[in-house]
Design goal:
This protein is of the alpha/beta class. The chain contains 14 helices and 15 strands. Strands 2-3-1-4-8-7-5-6 form an eight-stranded mixed beta sheet. Strands 13-12-9-10-11-14-15 form a seven-stranded mixed beta sheet, with helices on both faces. The longest helix is centred in the C-terminal third of the chain and has 19 residues. The radius of gyration is 27 Å and the shape is elongated. It binds adenosine-5'-triphosphate and magnesium ion.
Length: 399
């Protein structure tokens, strides 16, 4: 027997009150994008769920793709039939027969959304269960821990039968929480910060600071590859590569060594914030984790954060490195992150960066250079790449 559709449950979105329609529309759009290679699929939504009609497409690949889409709580392969007891019994038997293995046990869990239906849930369970028992050989009922729980949902428009629930990715549909700019370095942390933001519905554009010849084309490719891994969760992502060499050299020449890192971070944030404004995004995202390195102390954050009042999301702020690595492995970014290519900050990292920099001091050191002009120049020379799942390097300069 073939499953004719997949029933998708929304979970958290269902509680979003007046915004629910917006969330559901967004989720539908995201699902369509991920499943664009399957034009035969049919989409039908009701208040709290989505029915994906398979129209003979192979359900296995589709199940695999659905698992990475945020905003889906769970989903099930399902059969739809008329809300009529003989039809329901036939379909239930067919579903079970196609699935069961020796020594399997089952139970029927009927639910009646349509209260006009002549049988109540107990009667439904009984009638369907005994029809299955009569027509199979070695299947027994186990109401506590069955291997197959056949769920039968009788609605007025139709009845839906499902045998197995797949866990969805949870979270909120990407794009439903607005857009933010992710500062992506090439290390382990920032891709994880990007993933967790996507999970809460944030649409991403990525910013990377690139300092040739101190950092190589291969380091850039690493960032493209990391961005590409993130596209699995929310579709294509714009990657802005900012030429950062001149600013880093200027900081190196003008700012006392133990303050160079504070200044570097401040310049990154200034540029990122300007790009954010021009791309109409609402926030910045970093992979910072409290106390992990000198630039990630609270004192450093005070000195660095001063350049903008834009919200900065730091999804990893309270996480331990081991927890971050675990997620990086799960989402497939870890092995890319540990490729041994230099990034612009490791090269310029001072031996003894200030762990408690003073805002007043760093502002004074920077006041001797016209950094604003350099910041504008860097922004004018940004290279923007649209990273999609398939094509890694389609260049387009948006500025
Ligand atoms: P990561 O593992 O993400 O590199 P990290 O622990 O090495 O983080 P830092 O190098 O101090 O920490 O960087 C802190 C954050 O600043 C990064 O998570 C990232 O968001 C941002 N950042 C650092 N370097 C760059 C860069 N070259 N381009 C873009 N963002 C950067
Ligand atoms: Mg780093």
């Amino acid at each position: 027997m073939k499953f004719d559709h997949i029933l998708i449950r929304f979970g958290e979105i269902s509680t979003k009150g007046r915004n629910r329609k917006k969330f559901v529309d967004r989720l539908k759009r995201n699902i369509r994008e991920v499943l664009a290679d399957y034009p035969n699929l049919g989409y039908e939504s009701t208040r709290d769920r989505l029915y994906l009609h398979l129209h003979d497409e192979d359900h296995e690949v589709i199940v695999k793709k659905l698992k990475s889409i945020f905003g889906i709580q769970s989903f099930s392969l399902a059969i739809k039939c008329e809300s009529e007891i003989t039809k329901i019994k036939e379909s239930a038997l067919e579903a079970i027969k196609s699935l069961y293995q020796p020594n399997d046990t089952f139970k029927v869990t009927a639910k009646r959304a349509n209260k006009q239906f002549p049988l109540d849930t107990n009667e439904l369970n009984y009638q369907i269960g005994s029809h299955i028992l009569k027509n199979t050989d070695d299947l027994t009922v186990d109401v506590k821990t069955p291997t197959i729980n056949l769920r039968v949902e009788v609605r007025s428009e139709a009845t839906y039968l499902t045998c197995y629930d797949y866990k969805g990715a949870g979270g909120l549909p990407v794009g439903s929480s607005g857009k933010a700019m992710l500062l992506l370095s090439g290390g382990i942390d920032s891709p994880v910060a990007g993933y967790l933001s996507l999970k809460r519905g944030v649409e991403l554009e990525v910013i990377h600071f690139f300092s040739p010849p101190y950092t190589s084309e291969r380091a850039k490719q690493k960032v493209i590859d990391l961005t590409q891994e993130l596209t699995a969760f929310g579709g294509s992502i714009k990657l802005h590569i900012v030429p950062f060499t001149i600013i880093q050299e200027k900081i190196q020449a003008q700012v006392p060594e133990n303050y160079t890192m504070t200044s570097t971070r401040r310049m990154m944030l200034k540029i990122a914030d300007k790009l954010r404004e021009s791309r109409q995004a609402l926030a910045l995202i970093t992979g910072e984790s409290l106390g992990q390195v000198a630039s990630q102390t609270l004192e450093s954050m005070v000195a660095i954060n001063d350049v903008t009042s834009t919200p900065i999301l730091r999804p990893l702020i309270t996480m331990d490195k081991t927890e971050i690595i675990e997620i990086a492995k799960k989402i497939g970014t870890h092995d890319i992150s540990i490729r041994p290519f230099e990034d612009c900050c490791t090269i310029f990292t001072p031996a003894n960066p200030k762990t408690k920099p003073k805002l007043q001091k760093v502002s004074r050191f920077e006041s001797f250079v016209d950094f604003d002009e350099l910041v504008d120049e860097a922004i004018n020379n940004v290279e923007t790449i649209t990273v999609t799942k398939e094509q890694k390097d389609e260049f387009s300069n948006l500025f």
